Structures are given as structure tokens and as C-alpha cells.
Amino acid sequence: MPAHTDMPSFFGSLDTFSLGAGPIGLLTWRVTELGLAELSFGERRIPTQAVRHAVVEEVHDQLRSYFAGELKAFDLPLAPMGTPFQMGCWEVLQTIDYGRVISYAEQARLLGNPAAVRAVANANGANPIPIIISCHRVIASDGRLGGYGPGLNKKQWLLTHELNAI
Length: 166
Hints:
Layout: E1 14-22, E2 25-32, E3 35-41, H1 54-67, H2 84-93, E4 102-103, H3 104-111, H4 117-125, E5 138-139, H5 152-165
Parallel strand pairs: 4-5
Antiparallel strand pairs: 1-2, 2-3
């Protein structure tokens, strides 16, 4: 019988975790058979018998290029898990160009639901793949940063990094 991590499932098996250091700290990413499922700030518990996956190396390479200011758009198979509303919000996030910001209200309008500003902000907060699904590019209508789960200092760093690399 195959090991648990080798067994495919509807949601994708937990193929592998990887840990890397970037200019804003440790990053951990989880790849399933469907693609990149999670990117987290800080160290997470990593299984000792993880199966290697080609996407793990590609995530590492693209993050390294992004932090070096060389990569403006990620090209990875993504497999975030969320509600249909969250998935719609995250699709809109992927259309925001590098170095550009929009407001939560604008994101709600792009989603086709201009009254859903607070729900959009909550969906962005649940984004399992920050940086790559660029929720850091969404700010409050008055120009304040708004929220960011990993911390506003990291959001400010990412925005400044992108503006300086244009």
C-alpha cells in the first residue's frame, strides 16, 4: 500500500513542503499533485518523508527571481483551496500588474459585486498563496495599506520592492 503522501485525492496529495529564506524572512510552500497550494511566511512543520515535486523547484526559482527584481509575473500551476467567492477574488488579484495597486473597492467592482468590499478584504486575508496571488497589491481607498496577514511591514516591503524594480 502506498504511503499517505503518495496517495492521490480529490484535493491533491500532500506531496511536498519546501522552506526557503527570502529578503522578508522564511517562506514555506506546499505543493500538491495539482500545483502550488500554499505559501506561508515563517517556518512551518515540514514532513520528514516528503515526495519531491518539480513544481517545488520552480517555485523556489521564481521566488528568487522575483526578489532579485527580475520576475514580474509568476507562471506556476496554482491549486488554492477556497469558496467560489474567494476563488473569484483571487482570480482578480492575479490580473493586477506588477508594481500597480488597486483599492478593495476597485477589486469588488472588478469582481462584479461593488458592495462586497468587506467580503473582498476578508477573502484576500484568506489567500493561501500570498506574493504569487498578489493580495499585497490591494490597498484601502484612502491610500492606507489596509491589512495583510503576514504583517503590514511585509506588505510595504513588497510594494516598495515592486516599485523600485520597475
